[in-house]
Amino acid sequence: MSALAIGYLSLALIGLLIYSGMHVAVALAVVSLLGVWAITGHFWLGMTYVMQAASDSIAEYTFGVVPLFVLMGLAFSESGFGRDMFAGVSQLTRRLPAGLGVGTVIANALFATVTGVSIASAAVFSRVAIPEMVRSGYNQRLALGIVVGSSVLGMLIPPSLLMILFAILTDTSIGALFAGGVGPGLLLTLAYCVYLVGLGYLRPELLNEKARDLRIAERKGNALLIIPSLLLAACVLGGIYGGIFTPTEAGAVGALAALLLALAARRMGLASIWRISVQTGHITAAVCFLIIGATVYSGMLSLSGLPTSIVEFATSSGVGPVGFLFLFSAVVIVLGTILDSGSTILVSAPLGYPVALHLGIDPIHFGLVTIFGAEVGLLTPPFGLTAFVVQATMKDEGVKLNDVWRGSFPFLLVMIVILALIILFPQIVLFL
Amino acid sequence: MSDERSGGGGLAAAFRLFVRIAAIANVVATAWIVGLMFLIVLDVAGRNLFLAPIAGVPEMVAYSIVGIVFLQVTHTHVTNQMIRSEGFVELFANRRPRISNFLLMFGEAVGAVLFILLAAAAWPRFMSAYARGEYVGAAGYFQLTVWPFFLLIMVGSAFLGVSYVFAFLRLCGLPVDGRKAEGRG
Amino acid sequence: ETYNATVVTGHPAVFLWVKMLTEVFVPTVNKELEKTAHKINWTEAYGGTVAKVGGELEAMESGLAQITIGSGLFEPSLLPLQNITYMTPFAVSDVDQVLGVIDRLHDEIPELRATWEKYDMEYLANFGLEDYLLISKFPVTKLEDLKGHKISAPGPAVNWLSGTGAVGVSGNLTTYYTDLQTGVTDGVIVFPTAAAPAKLPEVAKYVTRTHFGAQHAGAIVAKKSWMDTLPPEVQQAIKVGADAYAKAYREGLASRVDDAFKALAASGAVITDLDEGVRTQWAMGLPPIARDWAADLDSKGLPGTKVLGAYMQGLRDAGAKPSRNWDQQ
Ligand code: NA
Ligand code: NA
Questions:
Q1: Nearest CB neighbour to C49, from listed A52, A243, A346
Q2: What does the domain layout of chain A look like in residue ranges?
Q3: How many angstroms separate the Cα of A92 from the Cα of each of A74, A102, A109?
């Protein structure tokens, strides 16, 4: 069997194993092991490869701060500050039919201006926003979808780790990519809001109005409660834009600030701080094992030559620039069903980029299409990293992965529509 | 979750001991996360207030995550928090419980073999890193020796493999928790 | 007969040293092989898809790859001698002189090739990086200008700031732009062909040609035990390919550096040359980085002092005028 055939077979096998209930990280690693074995003919070589990738893939500064963002999110929600913040937001957006949902999307867009990693957004907002939306009468799946869908903004609105990765892989300007992300980021934020408001008019039973009004009434007169949340946000945002710490360091500063504030306000004791730290560790281990699995598998895919072959197919079809962008983003979305967004860009961008240049496509436009396509993968099964993070964070509330997939499906559709718009109208990216 | 009740013979006793070790590793990893938070905050403070950043923080953070993950992962598995897509298995669980149980057993068995092999593959890497005194960082500035991390990968994988073995045995109906299993992990 | 060879790098093909593998090395070897009855079936995996930066040698040792770029910068413990140029800042601006001397030392000092062979690698050809410079948010004309500023620097280059009053913060290409933009640091030590595409002048416009020096950045290496199994004519083809790689790299680099300075100027940079007197003052004020490094290697049984002396002497013989004779002071 050719290496290429092994590559295609491995895609099918991974889907099968994941749906059969095997731990996702195990499925990815074991298929990679079998794939490298089949390609090279040496079993132990495959094993050594998996082992090496296990350490190399997560031994990165950016992943090192994953637990700190998770901790910040848990501290923020467990202390009740998250609830207070949402009470404040719902006051502001109370005239809208989907006020809390719109508030969550906008809060996520604001948080995206400081974080470069979508899993940080997902970790912070799942614990803070979902219980609040559910308490006020939202359908649980809708609440899950809102958080998963809007967490992609974390890597779309600058700063963005994916843009830095793309810039380095293709020699394009980080600054120009950051600027290019603003348009698509705002457009997606707006599209989510429009979708939610429309839903509020058409299916009001999904966003129970009454319960929300009750809650607001119950909170009235306690507007001061929002102050600690504002302080925390000011501390994180001010620190980053004041040049005191980097967006990645903000995870540590934000977590410590949230914990200290919770202690000072007697919202949390040392015992509950320890409890959420343990939970942080579990989420970190589960998520990092997924990242290891996806990285190992992307290496195996590269060895099989599959990415080269599908990009060659896309280019040899003889389509023009727009057709190429549609085909290429389809390839990226397919890769994104199984890989994390970083790995998706790693294996696809260097292959598509020269073709895009040859066809006269603006490099920044191509970059944003690729990045947006890779981010679609954050919410597509069987491997969708932010969906996993939200589920891992909400597991003890009885949330199943299936609920997350179903809840985020409408948001996936919105993303695909926006992606098509970005392809058709390069100005969305290039207007700045 | 571990069952605190005693009894169930040697297997149950072994599992209780195993869970205790995993819980200790979990405590160490959790403390490590808290330590990491303080390390970064001190680096930020040192750099801004005293113009004295802590050398090697990027390297320490990068490798800490390896340590935290491999210390924590067994406990994550023991407490059934590894991420899986349960949709189809649950569909089967109601109509064809045997098929569902078989699929879960298969998954745990593959995990057991994979992680025990991973531990074996980490051994030569640990040995070479130790023998060569491998480090990351830069000579004359900051050096972080890497063999302890390969040791953690090796030991962590081995423990995780054993955890999968226990989960497999439980699905086989053996009294791992000191009582008859209900068929599903 | 057909042989399989996998080429891996942690860096993507936009970097010249990787690009030349796929554009010059592989085609040249193929062309040479056309004269023989043999063929190589290549798998090229660049950009960290198979091995991350710093993980290339492990991929070679395990047998996953047969050819790679080995870099002392990312393997400080395995290839310490190969970091000689990073320990001797302000020594030489001309990358050709660096590469020429390093290549010759590989023939004169057997221990240099031996450090590769210890890990079953065969040294084929080297490559380097052009003269490093400083990009900052503030103009630099004298040493005092650096005082109290935070400056990002890669790996061992953090040492180049000791004793200047500036604070070295270790960073890399992925952090520079945002570090400068958010003000976490006020300057970066970088080479022009990386600074230009990253558009660093957008966030820090003063480009000071400090002449930290050109660097020996790494070598193209093959797995030795694999090379030994190949027929002599295939081995020869690989060596011809490596020579062509080295030649093309140097030619390509010169024009790229020119373009980089044009691009920097076009994006609004204020480019100045650091006064020679200030440069000497800076160099002489540094701690004895090279001597400390050499002594440490000597104590580990490696010829640190010998390589340092031969390298500096080689530079002087080649006509370079080091701001500090690191082997003497
Ligand atoms: Na962002
Ligand atoms: Na996906």
A1: A346
A2: 58-268+305-430
A3: 24, 11, 16
Residues of C within 8 A of B51 (CB-CB) are: 148, 150, 167
Residue type at C175 in one-letter notation: T
Domain count, chain B: 1
Nearest-neighbour CA in chain C from A170: distance (Å) = 6
Give the percent of chain C with pLDDT over 70: 100
Q: Are A314 and A328 in contact (CB under 8 A)?
A: yes
Chain B residue with Cα closest to C168: B53
Spell out the alpha helix ranges (H) of C135-288. 173-182, 192-195, 224-229, 232-266, 276-285
Q: How far apart are CA A144 and CA C172, in angstroms?
A: 37
Provide the residue range defining the domain that includes B33.
10-171
Task: Give the pTM.
Answer: 0.88
Q: What is the pLDDT of residues A40-72, one digit of tens each?
A: 888 998 999 999 888 888 888 877 778 888 888
In a domain, B1, yes or no: no
Q: Is residue B180 a part of any domain in this protein?
A: no
B183 near C CB under 8 A: no
Residue from the list B84, B117, B118 with its beta carbon closest to the beta carbon of A23: B84
CB atoms within 10 A of CB C31: 13
A292 inside 8 A of chain C by CB? no
pLDDT higher than 80, residue A89: no
Which amino acid is present at C126? N
> Which of the four pLDDT bands, split at 50, 70 and 90, describes residue A224?
low
Rounded Cα distance, A293 and A303, in Å: 16
State the average pLDDT over residues C182-209.
90
Alpha-carbon Rg of chain C, whole angstroms?
20
Closest partner CB to B134 (pick from C77, C86, C167):
C77
The answer to whether A234 contacts chain B (CB < 8 Å) is no
pLDDT of res. A94: 66
| Helix axes A401-424 and B87-95, enclosed angle (nearest 10) | 140
Asked whether the CA dihedral A236, A237, A238, A242 is positive or negative, the reply is positive
CB A68 within 8 A of CB A252: yes
For position C146, what pLDDT does the model report? 94
DSSP per-residue codes, A371-419: HHHHHHGGGSSS--HHHHHHHHHHGGGT--HHHHHHHHHHHHHHHHHHH
Ligand nearest to the CA of A377: 2
Nearest CA in chain B to C84: B139
| Residues in chain B closer than 8 A to A23 (CB atoms) | 82-84, 107, 111
State whether C159 and B141 contact (CB < 8 Å).
yes
C5-59 per-position pLDDT tens digit: 999 999 888 888 999 999 999 999 999 999 999 999 998 888 888 888 888 988 9
